[in-house]
Amino acid sequence: MRNLPAFTLAGYDKGRGKTVQALWFVVMNTVFMAWFCPARLRVALLRAFGATIGDGVLVRHRVRVLWPWKLTVGDHTWIGEGAWLLNLEPITLGAHVCVSQEALLCTGGHDHRAADFRYRNAPITVEDGAWIATRATVLAGVTVGRHAVLAAGTTLHKDLPELTLHTADGRRPVPVPA
């Protein structure tokens, strides 16, 4: 039986103090996510708050990033409208990665077997050339391999090998152009 009042943040490090956290939430919710904020400014804001961002990165509006200082993005990666990078732990996106509209990358979870529902968080890695399609979900502890594709609306709870397409019907090889 769950004892939710027993839940604590034990073992979870947000990585910055409350002032920086609060400042990020103000910036994210007033400027960063807004349609009028230029993509170049979004990248600059992420960098200013500690993200490591490569060259030629495109971050569209309505993107949410919980903690920028726990985000690494490689060159020429796109993050689509409404994507949510819920990074209680680090998220690493390689080069030429596409995270499509309203995709969710969630590094957080709970131990459903523990009465106190303690955290069971783990990082996410999306390797070079991978595509996380529209409204797909990547869960904590998962690595998406090079040039792998997670189909629209699907959920990934274990590693996806390189050159693999994951759909609701299963997995199969992905042909990759030279």
TrEMBL record:
Sorted UniProt keywords: Membrane, Repeat, Transferase, Transmembrane, Transmembrane helix
Pfam family membership, one: Hexapep
InterPro entries linked: Hexapep (IPR001451), Hexapep_transf_CS (IPR018357), Hexapeptide_acetyltransf (IPR051159), Trimer_LpxA-like_sf (IPR011004)
PROSITE patterns: HEXAPEP_TRANSFERASES (PS00101)
The keyword Transferase belongs to this UniProt entry's keyword annotation: yes
Keyword flag rRNA-binding: no
Alphabetical list of SUPFAM superfamilies matching this protein: Trimeric LpxA-like enzymes
Transmembrane region(s): 20-37
Superkingdom of origin organism: Bacteria
PANTHER family, A to Z: ACETYLTRANSFERASE C18B11.09C-RELATED (PTHR23416:SF23), SIALIC ACID SYNTHASE-RELATED (PTHR23416)
Family recorded in the similarity comment: Belongs to the transferase hexapeptide repeat family.
Listed name of the protein: WcaF family extracellular polysaccharide biosynthesis acetyltransferase
Species for this entry: Streptomyces lateritius
